[in-house]
Design goal:
Rossmann fold; alpha/beta; four-stranded parallel sheet; binds phosphoric acid mono(formamide)ester; about 325 residues; five-stranded parallel sheet; 2 domains
């Protein structure tokens, strides 16, 4: 049976079995990425549009590398160089692109819901590469892959997510993804950086006391302070934020001996993480997460474009 999804827009539509299929497939793509010729003909003849209407380093570059390593043709599109600045609507833009008979649109947008709208307009495969404060499902999958590889299993893991929960689309996908895999999840943030209803995300616990919970965590997932989305300072100073919520060298003795550190990037060094912890030789998974981005995005493209039955929708 083929993979039972046409799109990747909302991680909550994916089962534990679907997610394990993606992680196992990503693992098989590792050997392609570690040989001299890093390319297979799997998606030869398919055309993927990367529509990035918001800045990105990791997501955009890793999707493009994943597409090229699978031999797909790619069209990089978006930003100030398109006719949207002349007033063209999203619908007309998408219909124009689809006239080229493209097969998949990977989309990042500052507005929540744009990937779903594109799926409705276009009829082609759509992958959400981050929409507003809503979701970032391939980020959650690469995080799961990195944790799975480091820990060997999700059984009994307690994951703490620390920082700017309220503005985080990473959280919008990661919390449900961790719960689907059976992890215990704690959100850790000052009240001003929590959403109005943190319970809606589905975490097991919410606290503002990092030092109290740090000794219980197997994975410490630090979030970036998204200053570009603030409408007023939610803490007195970055220095105070760092003192209360930064993962610093001084806090390392509070961590379990084998606890690992994740961060989706980009990092505000000296704010949520100091360089000692960000570059920690045994604890930091941050560059493993970046590499996992290629593996997981190759797996998602392969499974959606190669595995979906025509007309399947989820
Ligand atoms: N983690 C993440 O989405 O990074 P970019 O914004 O650089 O893509």
């Amino acid at each position: 049976m083929g993979f039972p999804h046409k799109h990747l827009i909302d991680i909550r539509e994916y089962s534990r079995e679907d997610i394990m299929t993606i992680l196992e497939t990503a693992k098989t793509f590792k050997q392609i990425n570690e040989r001299r010729i890093k390319k297979v003909p799997t998606l030869k003849g398919f055309t993927v549009v990367n529509m990035f209407n918001e800045p990105s380093t990791r997501t955009r570059s890793s999707f493009e590398i994943a597409e090229k390593r699978l031999s797909a043709d790619t069209l990089n599109f978006g930003g100030s160089g398109t006719s949207t600045v002349k007033g063209e609507s999203l619908t007309d833009t998408v219909k124009t692109l689809c006239s080229y008979k493209v097969d998949c649109i990977v989309v990042r947008d500052k507005h929540a819901g744009v990937p779903r709208k594109i799926a409705d307009i276009s009829g082609v495969h759509v992958i959400d590469a981050g929409d507003g404060k809503h979701q970032h499902p391939t980020q959650a999958l690469l995080d799961l892959y990195s944790i799975w590889e480091a820990k060997g299993s999700f059984d009994g893991l307690h994951v703490g997510i620390v920082g700017d929960i309220g503005h985080s689309r990473v959280c919008g996908s990661l919390v449900p993804a961790l719960k689907i895999m059976g992890c215990e999840v704690t959100l850790i943030a000052p009240q001003t950086l929590l959403p109005a209803r943190p319970d809606v995300l589905g975490a097991d616990h919410v606290t503002s006391d990092l030092d109290a919970v740090l000794p219980q965590l197997d994975v410490v997932y630090m979030l970036r302070i998204q200053r570009e989305r603030f409408e007023g300072a939610p803490y007195p100073s970055l220095r105070e934020y760092n003192m209360l919520y930064g993962l610093t060298r001084e806090r390392e003795p509070l961590m379990k001996p084998y606890a690992v550190i994740c961060h989706p990037g980009p990092i505000n060094r000296g704010v949520e993480l100091d360089s000692y912890m960000a570059d920690h030789p045994t604890r930091s998974l941050i560059l493993d997460q970046v590499y996992a981005g290629v593996l997981v995005r190759m797996a998602v493209l392969y499974l959606l474009l190669g595995g979906a039955d025509d007309g399947a929708d989820a």
